[in-house]
Task: inverse folding
């Protein structure tokens, strides 16, 4: 059995969802599935990605369409997916669309590279990386590199980052490259000429022999100002020819340069501005010079102004010639448009003359009128020029501020370089442009601007802009960075101008691509220098070229965007593997600890996640460094003693960690990437502390770093991926790394020293620590100590550290040998958790101690046994498992084998049962004080909650707290099952045996393993459940299976049987022993109407609800025996030709509804049709509880019980209707209904002699499913039905037609003995044939129910009441005729059960109106929103004086009920098929789209059901049942129809 199960992540696509700023990281070997969200189900969706098809190379712009798979058939889109098998590292884009929408959403996925090292080419996990940065220019000759790089190896690093190895520019900055293609010649000793080949060989040697991976920088944003190739190809930079928008900024730059010359030459001394800037007065003098001498002289506003005189003259000429504006350009809109001069010359801007002619229109063609129009234009142009002038003043104000701010930093600030006097070498500010010509006067300089052969060499320098938008190129048109002097300029570099594509600057793209390919050939990865300012499309192109050579390219970058979302844009588009993060950004130890928690790992005790799960957003993988190579030295900002503990905190992070060379040697200053020219010391194990050119384990904190790096790598490689950070006090941080399979931990306690202990008063008392488990060893204890080796003196040749410090370290010692721990006592925390109390003795500032901790041996063994027994559910538990030496007998049997003996009735007990069902048995659902109760007593109650907790690892949830605090919940789960006999009790015993182990492991692990056990039991139960159902369910989609669970949810046996007894002659009737009497009793499954309100006692079973739900929940799911028993049980209660609505176990039955009997008959028909040999039910014996209408209920044991075959009971029901049913309910009055008026207890149901329609009821009762009785005295609706629907209700007519037609067909086949009914009419006995009845209904239905578009339709009796045409009436012959014409969804039921009643075209149009007016997100509006009494919000608690809504009077007057939607959709499908293939396919997609909402609700519902109803537009209704049998059933029937 493989330990590695395929990891699958599911990305749910939602319409219009753009996820370009959301990061999704995946490993190679993962499968990514795209599935349709509710907004896309039922649509023709296409998904495209640029992930390469098998055998193809990656091309960012080439997208392939993915094929859809629908493994479970075609009934819905819940399981439909397309997939990517991710085997190639990089960044990939996907998009999707539907219909005419090419792209209606999309995003990116980033697949991490696989790094390898060593002679065996072993995998180096990203979290194993420990990296050290080297400034390449400080390594000396290539021959000396191994001796200098050996420091990294001996310090435990496994990755080296080199700054660029190319020829450097004149500034000697590591990042200003003169030639991107050539190796720095300084690496070759005299007489040799090393090339990239030798570098590559060294890199390979480090990889194979030292197990070290090498990466280097790539610099795409700029090149050195003295690069030879930029002189030959100035088009590669931003110059005044290709970027004339920079002309004004260049003019200002030259003027400031001449200001520098004047200051250096003391020309401003008289104005109080010397060359040496020393105080605030000098700064004010700088501002004065700028405003009085520089800005007025260069007149920058002129570059953006219009030459008024010439422009007005041109306009005058046009007016004189009678010119008219071009209406195509102006579209008749007034408003003067200014056209920016593309060459940006002074007064070069032009006026769009069409806009001028449209705006400044003379009232005539007279010279005076033309003059007035010209003057008008002149005035407007003066305003525009003034606006440009004012805007330039604002730019100049900012420029002056930036110049002065720069001077303050460079010359006055204590933390600045203090450059001294202004000279030509150290100008007042860095120049923004190159000037490769002899110095002349400003006037002469400015002449060159208009000489292209010279202007093309004035190239803009690069730099960075504080707070700028990183997605915008600050050198492009539209940016004012250069003129506002906001650029913090790198005067040694030229910003490169790529354009939008290679064709825009062919040389530059080719040059940089070759540079990239050289780098990728020799190095395993790259650091993108200045990434946030590098044009994204350029970096994308270059990295694609790099990955073509090295597919597993490791890419890192440091971003300064200030936004995680913008960071994600870079990570997504470039496929950045790790973002550089720095511990130096933390202001205190608390923040440092928070960063550890932030940058990786799960919480300790995290839940086991399934291998197939949703794709969730990630944060970028971190490369967490104690300090980066271009930032200030921590020793200068903190203290020397903090070097070790802060490094230890960083090393404990569950991500890459690392440092820069010099940190470990405790170099007390920043090693400048520009100015540093000394060499790194070499490795020499025998070196003396006083030797500046050599280092060893005694130097600085190297020995400590070696131990930390080894520990970091071990933790990652062995799966210690859970993290806990404890802020012990203001200076002490304890970081725990935990392995979830072995449950070993490493706990590092680090006492930081942000302040020098020699000068800062730290607390003497260190708080004790309590570490759960058994401390196996002290991995390391170390602290920085002083030593007698002289004090630091900066060496001229080598980058030396502080010799006066070293590390005192012990490794792999027993606790008793520790010099840091004074005492370690073992305490017991409850019966199952052992904790070691640690009292520290010498945890001084600057010290670290790391413990290896295991569970105590007993707990370790128990966890191993639990994992052993969980292997039957998943192979991932094999690691860390231990065989059970004393396995209880029950655990020797696989759970699936035990569960195979459960019935689906047992599954109801195991999985479901709401609180009232549990209370009927003397229990209740588990309640957590101060939180809430679970929805079910069974596993679903827990699993619904855990489904929210598990993905988020919400270990602080009240459920997890309850589990950690005690065994109450654990005992509840097993005890409610153990008390049962049979297989259900066996499952309880299995759980109890597992929980016996669980109770004795550390409490912090109990939530994780409790969940793992329950998930295993639950999934096994579901598999068993579905295997006991029909092939439609077994082979069905996830949606079908979720709906089929409703059959188990609603179908159960309570403490008291809800159904009356069946005939003793009937085979396969289930029995049990009554717990109270000890006697044998029948225990047939009954269907609850809805949860939680209609689930137990006499209110559990309702005839109407049962038989609306029975087809979907019992017949479609294959539960034929239970369906038979329910049909026959209700048959036994027939009285007055009706079956009861409220069953009340048959004894308390109420026969007050006209429709239940017809739903019962429909189910018998469906049973005969769907069940193999189902017709046999007609011969099944029925025990009549009421042999006569006036009989008392005949209970089991009554002598001479009347037994009849079902076919005779059916015939009796039909005959009684034909004869006419008319009776008064027994016990009429408040005893059985406290709200109903007296007349309402009179029940009538008859068949109309002429039409064959069943009719009945009166305006004081409600005999159909719309049965709300008024309850409000205040509103005066008490005793008045809101919807009496008397007369012939359309669905009853349809159901009766279906029954009659079926009986006619059965009789013809010899399967039903009766062809006619004997009745007494007008004092005579007459026969009425079923055939005649069938024909009458058919002949009269559309004539009486269809509302024609013909206003003169002779069949229309009340044309004045018609307010919608092309619909079917809700009833016929109502006592209030206007009720007949109300648009409701009930006609859809008749369409499904008796489609022969409807003309196809009429039916289709009526369904269209219903769709437009009644269809809601989950249900159907029960009344037309155009109706005057419509109200879509049901509030049963509201009691006011509004007749239409008080006490929920509008129950069926607008709220959106779910069950009718099933019939609406089934009707759509039926008639669509009649209209042809195209209409049918469109309808199928509509149905899928509608049902996707139900799938989402079902999936997210903690009840795992569909509600009774919603308020308008799908809003939640708190008065609705949370899960309703008929809602689930009718939706399942739709899927069965598809």
Result:
């Amino acid at each position: 059995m493989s330990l590695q199960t395929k990891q699958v992540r599911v990305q749910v696509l939602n319409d219009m969802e753009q996820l370009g700023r959301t990061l999704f990281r995946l490993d190679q070997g993962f499968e990514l599935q795209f599935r349709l969200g509710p907004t896309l189900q039922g649509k023709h969706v296409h998904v495209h990605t640029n992930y390469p098809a098998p055998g193809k190379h990656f091309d960012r712009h080439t997208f392939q369409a993915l094929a859809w798979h629908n493994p479970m058939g075609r009934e819905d889109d819940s399981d439909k997916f397309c997939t990517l098998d991710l085997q190639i590292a990089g960044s990939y884009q996907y998009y999707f669309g539907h219909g005419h929408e090419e792209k209606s959403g999309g995003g990116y996925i980033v697949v991490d590279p696989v790094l390898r090292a060593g002679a065996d080419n072993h995998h180096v996990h990203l979290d194993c990386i420990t990296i050290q940065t080297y400034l390449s220019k400080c390594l000396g000759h290539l021959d000396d590199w191994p001796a200098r790089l050996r420091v990294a190896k001996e310090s435990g690093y496994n990755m080296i980052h080199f700054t660029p190895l190319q020829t450097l520019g004149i500034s000697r900055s590591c990042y200003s490259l003169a030639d991107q293609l050539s190796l720095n010649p300084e690496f070759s000793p005299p007489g040799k000429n090393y090339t990239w080949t030798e570098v590559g060989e060294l890199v390979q040697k480090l990889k194979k022999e030292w197990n070290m991976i090498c990466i280097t920088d790539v610099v795409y944003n700029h090149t050195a100002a003295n690069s030879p190739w930029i002189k030959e190809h100035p088009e590669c930079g931003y110059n005044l020819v290709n970027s004339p928008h920079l002309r004004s900024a260049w003019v200002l730059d030259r003027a400031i340069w001449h200001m520098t010359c004047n200051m250096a030459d003391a020309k401003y001394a008289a104005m109080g501005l010397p060359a040496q800037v020393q105080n605030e007065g000098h700064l004010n003098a700088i501002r004065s010079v700028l405003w009085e001498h520089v800005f007025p002289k260069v007149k920058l506003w002129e570059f953006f102004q219009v030459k008024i005189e010439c422009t007005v003259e041109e306009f005058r000429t046009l007016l004189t010639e009678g010119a008219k504006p071009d209406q195509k350009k102006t579209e008749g809109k007034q408003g003067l448009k200014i056209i920016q001069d593309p060459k940006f010359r002074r007064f070069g801007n032009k006026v769009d003359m069409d806009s001028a002619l449209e705006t400044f229109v003379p009232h005539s063609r007279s010279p005076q009128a033309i003059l007035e129009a010209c003057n008008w234009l002149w005035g407007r142009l003066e305003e525009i020029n003034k606006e440009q002038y004012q805007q330039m003043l604002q730019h100049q104000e900012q420029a002056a501020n930036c110049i002065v701010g720069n001077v303050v930093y460079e010359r006055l600030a204590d933390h600045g370089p203090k450059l001294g006097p202004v000279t030509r070498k150290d100008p007042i500010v860095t120049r923004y442009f190159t000037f490769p010509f002899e110095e002349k006067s400003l006037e002469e300089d400015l002449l060159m601007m208009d000489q292209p052969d010279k202007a093309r060499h004035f190239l803009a320098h690069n730099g960075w802009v504080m707070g700028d938008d990183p997605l915008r190129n600050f050198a492009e048109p539209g940016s004012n960075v250069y003129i506002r002097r906001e650029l913090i300029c790198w005067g040694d570099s030229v910003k490169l101008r790529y354009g939008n594509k290679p064709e825009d600057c062919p040389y530059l793209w080719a040059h940089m691509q070759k540079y990239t390919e050289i780098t990728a050939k020799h190095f395993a990865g790259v650091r993108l220098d200045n990434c946030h300012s590098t044009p994204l499309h350029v970096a994308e192109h270059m990295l694609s070229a790099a990955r073509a050579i090295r597919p597993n390219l490791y890419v890192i970058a440091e971003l300064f965007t200030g936004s995680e979302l913008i960071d994600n844009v870079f990570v997504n588009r470039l496929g950045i593997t790790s973002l550089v993060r720095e511990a130096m950004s933390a202001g205190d130890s608390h923040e440092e600890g928070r960063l550890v928690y932030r940058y990786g790992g799960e919480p300790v005790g995290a839940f086991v996640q399934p291998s197939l799960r949703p794709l969730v957003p990630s944060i970028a993988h971190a490369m967490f460094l104690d300090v980066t190579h271009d930032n200030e030295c921590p020793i200068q900002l903190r203290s020397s003693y903090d070097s070790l503990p802060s490094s230890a905190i960083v090393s404990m992070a569950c991500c890459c960690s690392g440092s820069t060379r010099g940190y470990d040697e405790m170099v007390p200053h920043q090693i400048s990437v520009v100015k540093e020219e000394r060499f790194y010391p070499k490795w020499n194990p025998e070196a003396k502390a006083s030797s500046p050119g050599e280092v060893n384990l005694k130097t600085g904190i190297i020995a400590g770093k070696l131990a930390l790096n080894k520990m970091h790598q071990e933790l990652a490689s062995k799966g210690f991926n859970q993290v806990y950070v404890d802020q012990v006090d203001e200076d002490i941080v304890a970081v725990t790394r935990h392995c979830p399979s072995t449950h070993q931990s490493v706990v590092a306690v680090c006492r930081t020293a942000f302040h020098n202990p020699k000068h800062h008063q730290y607390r003497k008392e260190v708080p004790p620590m309590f570490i759960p488990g058994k401390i196996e060893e002290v991995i390391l204890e170390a602290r920085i100590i002083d030593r007698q080796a002289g004090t630091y003196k900066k060496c001229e040749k080598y980058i030396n550290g502080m010799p006066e410090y070293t590390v005192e370290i012990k490794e792999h010692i027993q606790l008793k040998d520790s010099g840091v721990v004074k005492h370690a006592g073992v305490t017991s925390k409850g019966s199952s958790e052992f904790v070691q109390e640690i009292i520290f003795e010498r945890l001084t500032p600057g010290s670290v101690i790391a413990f290896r901790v295991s569970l105590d041996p007993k707990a370790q063994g128990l966890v191993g046994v639990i994992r052993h027994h969980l292997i039957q559910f998943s192979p991932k538990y094999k690691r860390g498992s231990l065989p059970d030496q004393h396995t209880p007998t029950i655990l020797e049997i696989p759970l699936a084998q035990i569960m195979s003996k459960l019935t689906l009735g047992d599954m109801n007990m195991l999985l479901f049962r709401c609180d009232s069902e549990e209370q009927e048995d003397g229990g209740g659902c588990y309640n957590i004080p101060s939180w809430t109760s679970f929805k079910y007593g069974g596993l679903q109650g827990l699993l619904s909650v855990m489904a929210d907790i598990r993905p988020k690892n919400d270990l602080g949830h009240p459920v997890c707290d309850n589990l950690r605090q005690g065994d109450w919940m654990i005992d509840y789960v097993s005890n409610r099952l153990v008390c049962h006999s049979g297989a259900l009790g066996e499952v309880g015993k299995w759980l109890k045996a597992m929980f016996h182990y669980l109770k004795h492991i550390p409490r912090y692990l109990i939530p994780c393993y409790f969940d793992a056990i329950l998930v295993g039991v639950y999934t096994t139960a579901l598999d068993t459940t579905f295997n006991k159902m029909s092939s439609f369910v077994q082979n069905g989609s996830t949606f079908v299976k979720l709906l089929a669970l409703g059959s188990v949810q609603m179908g159960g046996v309570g403490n008291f049987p809800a159904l009356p007894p069946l005939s003793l002659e009937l085979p396969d009737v289930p029995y049990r022993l009554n717990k109270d009497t000890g006697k044998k009793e029948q225990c047939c499954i009954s269907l609850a109407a809805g949860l939680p309100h209609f689930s137990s006692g006499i209110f559990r079973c309702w005839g109407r609800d049962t038989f609306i739900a029975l087809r979907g929940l019992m017949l479609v799911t294959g539960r034929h025996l239970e369906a038979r028993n329910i049909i026959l049980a209700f048959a036994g209660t027939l009285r007055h030709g009706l079956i009861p609505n409220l069953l009340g176990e048959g004894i308390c039955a109420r026969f007050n509804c006209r429709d239940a009997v017809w739903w019962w008959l429909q189910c018998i028909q469906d049973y005969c049709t769907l069940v193999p040999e189902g017709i046999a039910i007609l011969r099944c014996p029925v025990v009549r509880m009421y042999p006569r209408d006036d009989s008392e209920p005949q209970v089991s044991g009554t002598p001479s019980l009347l037994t009849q075959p079902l076919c005779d009971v059916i015939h009796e029901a039909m005959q009684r209707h034909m004869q006419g049913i008319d009776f008064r309910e027994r016990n009429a009055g408040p005893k059985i209904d406290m709200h109903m008026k007296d007349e309402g207890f009179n029940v009538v149901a008859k068949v109309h002699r002429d039409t064959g329609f069943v009719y009945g009821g009166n305006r004081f009762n409600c005999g159909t499913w719309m049965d709300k009785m008024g309850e409000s005295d205040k509103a005066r609706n008490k005793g008045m039905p809101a919807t009496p629907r008397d007369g012939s209700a359309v669905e009853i007519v349809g159901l009766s037609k279906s029954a009659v037609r079926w009986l006619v067909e059965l009789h013809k086949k010899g399967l039903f003995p009766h062809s006619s009914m004997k009745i007494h009419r007008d004092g005579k006995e007459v026969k009425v044939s079923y055939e005649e009845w069938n024909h009458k209904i058919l002949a009269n239905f559309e004539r009486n129910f269809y509302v024609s578009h013909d206003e003169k339709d002779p069949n229309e009796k009340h044309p004045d009441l018609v307010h919608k045409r092309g619909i079917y009436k809700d009833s016929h012959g109502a006592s209030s005729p206007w009720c007949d014409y109300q648009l409701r969804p009930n006609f859809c039921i008749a369409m499904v059960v008796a489609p022969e009643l409807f003309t196809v075209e009429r039916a289709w149009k009526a369904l269209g109106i219903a769709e437009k007016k009644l269809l809601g997100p989950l249900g159907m509006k029960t009344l037309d929103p155009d109706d005057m009494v419509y109200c879509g919000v049901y509030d049963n608690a509201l009691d006011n004086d509004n007749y239409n809504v008080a006490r929920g009077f509008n129950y069926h007057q607008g709220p959106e009920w779910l069950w009718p939607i099933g019939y609406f959709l089934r009707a759509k499908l039926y008639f669509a098929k009649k209209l042809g293939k195209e209409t049918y396919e469109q309808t199928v997609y509509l149905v899928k789209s509608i049902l996707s909402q139900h799938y989402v609700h079902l999936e997210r519902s903690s009840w795992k059901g569909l509600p009774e109803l919603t308020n308008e537009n799908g809003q939640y209704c708190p008065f609705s049942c949370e899960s309703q049998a008929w809602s689930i059933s009718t939706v399942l029937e739709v899927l069965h129809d598809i």
